[in-house]
Amino acid sequence: MSSALTDSAQQRVFNFSAGPAALPLSVLEEVRDELVCYPGAGASIMEISHRDKRFVDLLHDAQATLRQLLGISDDYEVLFLQGGAALQFSMIPANLLRGTGKTAQYLLTGSWGKKAIKEAKKEGAAESIYDAGETNYDRLPAAGDYQVADDAAYLYYCSNETIQGVQFTDEPACPDSVPLVSDASSDFLCRPLDISKYGLLYACAQKNAGPAGVTVVVVRKDLLQRSPADLPGYLNYNNHAEADSEWNTPPTFAIYVLGKIAKWLRDDIGGLDAMLQQNQEKSQTLYQVIDQSNGFYRGHAQTEARSLMNVTFNLPNDDLQASFIAEAAKHDLTALKGHRSVGGIRASIYNAMPVEGVNTLANFMKDFAKANG
Ligand SMILES: *Cc1c(COP(=O)(O)O)cnc(C)c1O
Q1: Is 83 within a domain?
Q2: Could you tell me the distance, in angstroms and rounded to a whole number, from the CA of residue 107 to the centre of ligand 1?
Q3: Which domain holds residue 329?
Q4: Do the beta carbons of residue 22 and residue 352 sit within 8 Å?
Q5: Distance CA 242, CA 337 (A)
Q6: What CATH number is given to the structural domain containing 67?
Q7: Coil, helix or strand for 298?
Q8: Domain total of the chain
Q9: What is the pLDDT of residue 230?
């Protein structure tokens, strides 16, 4: 390896960005090694046709690895789409609500759910049946806090609210007659899931599964019958399902990296059970520092709702907050500023954040509290 390359790896910091977010170093290095010429292709993966067998094989491989990791059965399609999570806010109601005469029901536990329902209302009847806005989205619904109608078009929720740091541990209760729809953008692949509980689950890649540009949509095949024929072509799930995500040019480079991340999870981490254990340990390390700080750090999310992925907390005042961020940067701990709607600090500790990064942050937090408490 040339010294320039060694230097660039050494310049890497512990990056707590909420998204686009840190990727595993070993995957970045593989991508670097293959960037100029994908083995056997005589060209970069970015330079070959999406119909080229080498790319089609790679796309199928990425789908197969996701199916293997999550145990996704043949009852479901695995689609690779563009437009980010935001386009799914519209595509879901366009395909599953428009023209049905039914109502889509939404559980609002944070900012992303709120954005999603706004788009759904343009497509048909959509109502929130739970909204934690009064407490600035610090909690999850308790049993009995909401009632899903047996004939709802679908029940929508966001499994991990990235901005507030609020995550469901289990799927919300939902009648068998109602498809469950989940925005899993920021906790996709952080743990095993029982996909058979879902009608549709989607995730933009740039939080926990790859670079920006590709969004994974896992949809139960029978739901595709609902899509109105007169939808704009790109917006119709059927087109993407029938064309195996090649209805038009898919985001080839992003799919290529996503496939590598899936293999890293399977082969290097050892699967999603092992990933979950690591995520539990990493998040516990930070929540423990918060809980043992005598109130110096105040977590945003209620204890039962705490996210494995986004740890949100406040300091006693704005000056200390600013100084926390500035001091942390000196320890190579970056991108810790919380979202403007919550304030404070947000440490995003997705799958690719090494244990060492979390431990470094935890030690910094203890020292900072001691010096300033
Ligand atoms: C980041 C994020 C989004 C928005 O993703 P885009 O790809 O920018 O549209 C939606 N939902 C959740 C939970 C997110 O974390």
Answers
A1: yes
A2: 16
A3: 13-21+270-372
A4: yes
A5: 43
A6: 3.40.640.10
A7: strand
A8: 2
A9: 95
